[in-house]
Hints:
Elements: H1 3-21, H2 23-26, E1 37-49, E2 65-76, E3 81-91, H3 102-105, H4 109-116, H5 118-121, E4 123-133, E5 135-137, E6 140-152, E7 157-162, E8 168-174, E9 176-189, E10 194-205, E11 210-217, E12 220-228, E13 235-249
Antiparallel strand pairs: 1-2, 1-13, 2-3, 3-4, 4-6, 5-6, 6-9, 7-8, 8-11, 9-10, 10-13, 11-12
Amino acid sequence: xxxxxxxxxxxxxxxxxxxxxxxxxxxxxxxxxxxxxxxxxxxxxxxxxxxxxxxxxxxxxxxxxxxxxxxxxxxxxxxxxxxxxxxxxxxxxxxxxxxxxxxxxxxxxxxxxxxxxxxxxxxxxxxxxxxxxxxxxxxxxxxxxxxxxxxxxxxxxxxxxxxxxxxxxxxxxxxxxxxxxxxxxxxxxxxxxxxxxxxxxxxxxxxxxxxxxxxxxxxxxxxxxxxxxxxxxxxxxxxxxxxxxxxxxx
Length: 250
């Protein structure tokens, strides 16, 4: 786990502790629409913001902004806590690594297949699960969240190519990594069965996306390169949506 990620965790738990201590003063439940226990299914859409720069020509470059779509199941198992599981789909087009530029290595069969399946490669799923603390203010439910995620930032590549000078290039890239996700969500209950949603979450990889390249002539390694970059998997999500509740207990 990155050191800066470890430094963030105590702050998050301190935030939860402070919010818990103030819960009674902030909670104004007086027969509001919010159930004490419930399940819900939420649909949302929004944007994913990403660091545009990467540290090496071995990694492709992601855009600064992409489109995000989310499907979340919530279960409020008591008056203070809610567990959730979510499937998200990020849509954006990554630029291929400079090391695989066709002007440098020539056109290969893999390049043609990659062009054909480009629309599918633009779809990048993400899974996450965790808990939220419930702060109820009239018909608002404020939900600080902490969880774990598994996100495809890039589908990855494993290519073995023969260059024009007879040198063989073995390139490998892994762009799907586990991460930690935290943020704040808000539910506004428009009725006892439905709610409007707002969400802001940050994601930090627990492992760094990585890429490597080995140049060989015969069995001899002429040159090798490797890069690991946590910035490649760092994301910020903003989303709005709508939710439907069931199994309500007041």
